[in-house]
Every structure is written in C-alpha cells, then in structure tokens.
Automatic annotation (TrEMBL):
Organism of provenance: Acinetobacter wuhouensis
Region (Disordered): 1-21
Name recorded for this polypeptide: Peptidase M15A C-terminal domain-containing protein
SUPFAM superfamilies: Hedgehog/DD-peptidase
UniProt-listed Pfam families: Peptidase_M15_3 (PF08291)
InterPro entries: Peptidase_M15A_C, Zn_M74/Hedgehog-like
Amino acid sequence: MFLTACTKPENNKANQPQQNKLDQQIETQFKLWKAQQNPQLLSEYYQFMSQYLKHPPSLMELTTTRNYMPEKCYSKRFAIPPKAFWKNVVGSLQLVEKLNGNEYFKSYSITAIYRDPELNKCVGGAGKSKHLNNYAVDFYILNPKESNADEREKLVKKMCQFWKIEGKNFKMGLGVYGNNRYHIDTQGYRTWGKDFKSKSSPCLKDDK
C-alpha cells in the first residue's frame, strides 16, 4: 500500500475503476523497479526520511512520480534522489503533515517529490522546478473530492488562508491546481494556479 499516512477514497466516482487500474499498474511497475535497486540504499533513504516525520510516506510515495505524464515517460517515473538532496524535502513534508494534523484535510496521497532531470525533460517540466532538487511535494487530497464542489472550494479557501497568514514564516510556495491537487515547497513565499502563474492562483483573486 502506498497511502501509508492516508486513507483510501470511497469507490463512488465513475472514474474510480480506471484510477484503481492505473494505481495497480504503477504499483506493479514500482515493484519491478524496486527489485533492481540497491536494497540497502532504499532502506537508508526511507529510514532517513522517517526520522523527521510522525507519519512518513511509503517508499513508493518517496520515489515515484504519479502525476500525469506521456506514456513514453512511464519508465522514468521512479528515482532515488542524490544523498545531498535527501534533507531538502523534509520541511515541505513536515508542512504537509502539519496541515493534515490540523485537519485542513483528513486524507491525502503524495503524487510527486523528486523528479530527476531525465524525467523533467521528458514531461516538459520547468528548468528550475523545485522537484529537481527534491524540495517539493505534490499531493492529492482524497476528501472532499468524494463529497462535492462546495466542499472542495471551502478547502481551497482554507489552504489560501493558511498561506496568507503563515506562509511567509514557512517560506511556503503553494500551487493550487484544482480538483484537489496541490504543490507545496518551502523555497519562497509565492503562489500560482493551474497555468503555473501567480495570476491564476485563487489565493490572489481578492488581492487587487
């Protein structure tokens, strides 16, 4: 299971069987990739991350990019970051954990952390993406996705409120991609929306 710190959504969406099938395919690919890696290195990386978190992500979440990508990039979705980058993401993961612990959202699934240069090029990622140096966390909030649009909108407002009030203290970067998908890093106080530009962030809509 890769939702170590989270819970699964209910199967009440029309696209749930398709999503489940995709998750199973990625999990199968992950197991094949894992079998080809140095088990000592994998264990060392997981233990390193675990010491900083109350509810550490699974090894699969730490090493797998599950965001949408072209099929040609599938084989590149798995990677262990260089050791020099390991600690970079700790602050971002702790911030996600803080939001979860304060019940901004009850359950979530991490979809991307480290992205190596080969995958970044394949998916057309930004040249200065925070994922390249293992600073960023993309995650998918499982509820209120299973409820309704009003609840999802309330969550966006809560996340934006946290960013406005406490974001500067955490040097928080908040990406709001819609459909309960978010990006968090701690590399600068800023926000953006679906097109990766600040103007599209719902957090700035009321700021004239």
